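Hi again,

Forgot to attach this to my earlier email, sorry! This is the prediction with flavin-adenine dinucleotide bound. I've pasted everything inline since the attachment limit keeps bouncing my files.
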Amino acid sequence: MDDDEVVIIGAGICGLATALALHRKGIKSVVMERSESLRNVTGAAIGIQPNGWRALDQLGVSENLRHTAVRLRRYRELDISRGKQKEISLNPMDGETRWLRRKDLIDTLYAELPPGTVKFGCQLESIKLDSHSSKPVLRFIDGSSIIAKALIGCDGGKSIVAEFLGLKRTKIFPLCAIRGLTYYPSGHSHDYEFAKINKDNISVGRVPIDDNLVYWFCLFPYIPKDGKVWEDPEVIRQLTLELLSNHPQEIQQMVVNADMKSLSITHLRYRAPWDLLTSSFCKGTVMVSGDAMHIMGPFLAQGGAAGIEDAVVLARTIAQLDLNSVESGSMIMVRNLEEAFNQFVKQRRMRVVRLSLQSYIIGMLSGAPSLLKKIMCIMLLVVLFPNPYNHVDYDCGDL
Ligand SMILES: Cc1cc2nc3c(=O)[nH]c(=O)nc-3n(C[C@H](O)[C@H](O)[C@H](O)COP(=O)(O)OP(=O)(O)OC[C@H]3O[C@@H](n4cnc5c(N)ncnc54)[C@H](O)[C@@H]3O)c2cc1C
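Structure tokens for the complex follow:
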């Protein structure tokens, strides 16, 4: 590939959305992905709430995606141990919530990019700044290197770009999540609802994607000792069945019938909200976005949507500086990009601090060992987030 391009590291949701947002604004970029092909299976499915749909509308991909998943009518949370249930209707006037297969989202974003935008099998190893031009010099694991016009790190929770920027390491919750998909050839009998079923510190989420496919997850508060669980789907399934041995029979059956390829287990990570408040997310023409900037617990189902919002805001900010009128590689170009990245961080910081703080407190609440800690978490949530669904009303604005 050529030197002096806008380089995005990582073809996850955020990297692809960023390349597409830039493309829609007439700005060329190249995405370098370490995997040999699109990573569109891991994680099974992803919830997109009204704020996420607004961002997808701006990217021009929402219409196709709407047809891939049913619209949910409510959230329902059931505590089996205490026999308590709470329901929240999702008002159609307030926008839509659907759980998409990750494959549908990733494939759709990818298909909208000009051919050749994503280069597979390119694992970034290190970054340094060129001593003359201050541009980032990227070295890949195969020994090749390039000088980029700008570098956008969308390389996830263990980001090399974040490390280069001197960001603190991400932290881990004492919680793991198992995710999977189950196909019902003759249709399932579940309502169009997000159901969360809690029992003995273990939560199971169950959401229909369409009339035959159901996404589910299981959150549990310890780290499995058997190393094989990170690689072997059969071990993941057995572990899930052990964890859910006291849950209703139909939930266990859903796990028994799961599509083996869809099963994955993740140790949950987050960037501390107070680090988000103070960190520098860009240096010169290098910046981070998506999980690399603000990985958070999945308790609000917002991390991926926040990465899509990032993409819209970043492309708009860069486009406002009209790079096409400036000679490529000139110092003015470099300064304009630096300015765009600074503005992006300014616009996004408080949005991601609030999301990640709310998510962090909910995570602490589910893992709190004592009643006193639980009460403190609940009080913090009530004071700081009196409307707990406010975050879905957010509009990242026009591209
Ligand atoms: C259990 C769970 C449930 C979730 N549910 C939801 C939900 O319902 N809704 C929601 O919005 N979000 C949800 N999220 C969060 C969401 O999955 C993430 O925020 C989102 O996938 C992050 O996308 P990303 O592109 O920033 O990073 P990633 O998906 O991590 O992508 C990073 C990409 O960079 C590549 N890469 C990494 N290092 C390098 C390198 N050195 N060189 C080249 N390439 C590299 C990787 O291979 C990968 O393709 C959930 C997360 C979890 C864990």
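The chain has two domains: 6-70+102-170+271-393, 172-269. The domain at 172-269 is CATH 3.30.9.30 (D-Amino Acid Oxidase; Chain A, domain 2).

That should be everything now.

G.
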